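Q: Second attempt. The first request was missing the SMILES, so the protein and zinc ion are both included now.
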Amino acid sequence: MLDRSRRAAWGEAYVQRFAVAYDFPVVFTRNAFDPENPTFVDALRRREGTKRHRLALFIDSGVLAAMPGLQRAIQRYAAAHADALRIEGDLVVVPGGEEAKRRPELVERLLAALAARAIDRHSFAVAIGGGAVLDAVGYAAAIFHRGVRHVRLPTTVLAQADSGVGVKNAVNAFGMKNLVGTFAPPFAIINDGAFIDHLAPRDKRGGMAEAVKVGLIRDGAFFAWIEANADALARFHPNTLDRLIERSARLHMRQIGEGGDPFETGSARPLDYGHWSAHKLESLTDHQVSHGEAVAIGIALDTRYAVLCGLLPDGEDERVHRLLRRLGFDLWSEALARRDADGQLAILKGLREFQEHLGGELTVTLIDAIGHGVEVNRMDHALIADAVGWLAERRA
Ligand SMILES: NC(=O)c1ccc[n+]([C@@H]2O[C@H](COP(=O)([O-])OP(=O)(O)OC[C@H]3O[C@@H](n4cnc5c(N)ncnc54)[C@H](O)[C@@H]3O)[C@@H](O)[C@H]2O)c1
Ligand SMILES: [Zn+2]
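A: Got both inputs this time. The predicted holo structure:
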């Protein structure tokens, strides 16, 4: 505290204060581009109901390859709703997967596409794609004109159940994942179950790890539901997968809406159970292990760790390991056992990087019961090594 005389000498402070309320719909539908389906038009018309909305449409190359008829379907939809929307220029095809986030020139290309279509703050950047494409387009939309309206149509299990319903975007830079990005709540999100049907089995499975994760930290009944439906989920039964996505998305939404820190100003990362090692595994394997696959391993590792440090009753680690295996996850990667020149497990550097991403004190979410997350500020390296050994014993 400055004392009065010094304060007078150095000047007066005025406190600027305002709050901005955000709301955006997350709609669950099927076949959003069936001309009879009003979901997309309704989303665009949410604030301005009568005008003809202009939009730039960005689409994941992997989605286009898997759904060759999609481009025609979108054109037909736009023609059927010409009173409500106009797609400016051609569809912009964005390379799918992590390529979308790690090519430095791509953001510039996305911004150029927005500029060429004269997108402004009353028109839209619409993105159809996996989490990576949504992150890259979301970032471009957030910085173009200091932020234009952004509508997302997530097309993977992970993006529909987790990342796509959130408020963050980012691209990778200087060799670091998600280094450059913003918090930017979208205008609307449309989760279209039909996209999931075209997804590769590996990507269908990957996203389920985030659902298991959010069940473990927030909702034990949901975790038990996943256990009860594990066989159907392992076969990717569409209705069961739809339900998993919807429940997971709503739990993620609740955390952002009611958790008290949507823009992550504190040190905690309550939704990132299993993620300190997952991010490191992704980079150690040069993304050969996908985000979802790495999260499954990270969850198994931290659940065993929670038992080893006495937080979680013995046996719950086996239960989590068994469920993830039944869903089809491989819970071992050679990168877990890799050692740096100093003899330390390479994975341990993930702890420091996890902390550095936010700054502040190291805060890792663990669980003390299935369905209940707790925060710890310290991880014991020897116990982590023991947990890695436990996973090694159980490798397939
Ligand atoms: N912003 C956030 O809050 C947040 C949170 C978690 C993860 N993420 C990011 O999400 C990314 C991972 O996203 P993801 O798991 O959705 O995978 P992804 O975006 O990497 O896509 C995986 C592959 O599937 C293809 N694809 C996408 N939809 C398809 C469909 N319907 N049919 C056929 N192929 C399709 C893509 O082209 C790509 O090849 C990572 O970069 C991660 O960092 C962001
Ligand atoms: Zn994740």
